[in-house]
């Protein structure tokens, strides 16, 4: 988390929209064997929590229930060259969007995990457009076998630490030029967030 308050926001709706757009994050926990991380799709519950599932064989699976964990979500990011400024006598930097969420974790029961999987399928299939794949297309025996190989969890967010470092220190015309250059360099998502988040 960048320490400059200029890069902060208290807008919970904005924060949750960043997480939803990314759809994926990293769950960190210190285990008896040392720090571990799991890479997971994330689903917001709408009441201040996020759900995810991991393989039952994952190193975190037996340690998460009842623990306090950290989720990190990385949004778009990109290098900023001093040649994009009017005055090149500067240094390079990096624009980025990142969210840290920490809180207590509880394990989902089978019914909760089933609901999470169906919600995930609906949400991510909708994002693709076109005809959706349906869980009913998978034979029940195969679904049951895979279901037994995963574990679901819910993290109730106690603290949100967002960083939206989007060249806010620069004057508006320079920020506009940086956003345009990000776009031209193949980074339209970062450019869009620069335009969305005011200085």
UniProtKB/TrEMBL annotation:
Under the heading InterPro entries, the entry gives: Split_barrel_FMN-bd, TR_PAI2-type
Under Pfam families, the record lists: FMN_bind_2
Q: Which domain of life is it from?
A: Bacteria
Membrane-crossing residue ranges in chain numbering: none
SUPFAM superfamilies reported for this sequence? FMN-binding split barrel
Please state what the protein is called: FMN-binding negative transcriptional regulator
């Amino acid at each position: 988390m960048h320490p400059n308050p200029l890069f902060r926001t208290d807008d919970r709706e904005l924060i949750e929209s960043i997480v939803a757009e990314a759809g994926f994050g990293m769950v960190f926990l210190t285990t008896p064997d040392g720090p571990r991380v799991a890479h997971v799709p994330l689903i917001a519950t709408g009441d201040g929590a996020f759900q995810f599932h991991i393989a039952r064989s994952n190193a975190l699976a037996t340690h998460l229930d009842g623990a306090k964990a950290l989720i990190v979500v990385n949004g778009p990011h990109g290098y900023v060259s001093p040649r994009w400024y009017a005055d090149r006598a500067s240094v390079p930097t990096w624009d980025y969007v990142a969210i840290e969420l920490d809180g207590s974790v509880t394990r989902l029961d089978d019914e909760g995990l089933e609901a999470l999987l169906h919600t995930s399928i609906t949400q991510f299939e909708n994002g693709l457009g076109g005809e959706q794949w349906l869980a009913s297309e998978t034979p029940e025996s195969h679904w049951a076998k895979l279901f037994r190989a995963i574990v679901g969890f819910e993290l109730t967010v106690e603290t949100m630490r967002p960083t939206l470092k989007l060249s806010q220190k620069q004057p508006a015309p320079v920020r506009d030029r940086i956003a345009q250059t990000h776009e031209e360099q193949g980074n339209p998502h970062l450019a869009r967030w620069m335009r969305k988040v005011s200085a």
